[in-house]
Amino acid sequence: MAVNLTKGQKVDLTKGNPGMDKVVVGLGWDTNKYDGAQDFDLDSAAFLTNAQGKVVADSDFIFFNNLVHPSQAVKHLGDNLTGEGEGDDEQLVVTLSKVPAEYEKISFTVTIHDAEARGQNFGQISNAFIRIVNEATNEELIRYDLSEDYSIETAVVVAELYKHNGEWKFAAIGAGFEGGLASLCQNFGINV
């Protein structure tokens, strides 16, 4: 049975699941309160960062246009342009043993494509979640449902995996950003 987290909570991932090496990170959402003429396209991403919370290279930003990290540790399984349907809208797969030693954290984010031009924000999103699934057993281990009303934000750092005393932990972050993808990238040390 999955552990349900609220914003700010942290939980051990590998300590309670010895031997687990590969996890599926599923992100999902629905749109509501929206009757505009534009499509609503959300994009998930992952940033691999060092102890200072910054990327080492631009290739540490994994998204629809850079699907696989050079280490093969993080793979994005593709862009969902509409978010329609039940379950995960987008997924990433993380192989923990392949994460190079210089990386301390993997942050998972969601942004709204062309949010400013389309007049869209996360206040128009509902039922957003992130979940961690053991790839080997298909068991859902952790789930975090975002419950805040992000009325002006166009990007959200949803959660992160991070190393602590040789183990991987999961933290429910839920931090919203204005300024969309550009603001988010600058936060992690990528110049756009």
Summarize the structure.
By secondary structure, the protein is mainly β. The protein has helices at 115-118, 180-187; strands at residues 3-5, 10-12, 22-31, 42-49, 61-62, 74-76, 90-95, 105-112, 125-134, 139-145, 155-164, 167-177.
- Helix share, percent: under 10%
Oligomer: single chain
Distance between the termini: 41 Å
Query: What is the tally of helical segments?
Result: 2
Strand content: 35-45%
Unreliable sequence segments: none
Task: Give a description of the structure.
There is one protein chain. Helix content is 6%, strand content 42%. The chain contains two helices and twelve strands; from the N terminus they run ββββββββαββββα. The protein has helices spanning 115-118, 180-187; strands at residues 3-5, 10-12, 22-31, 42-49, 61-62, 74-76, 90-95, 105-112, 125-134, 139-145, 155-164, 167-177. A six-stranded mixed β-sheet has the order 1-10-9-3-7-6, with no helix packed on it. It is globular and about 50 Å long. The mean pLDDT is 91.
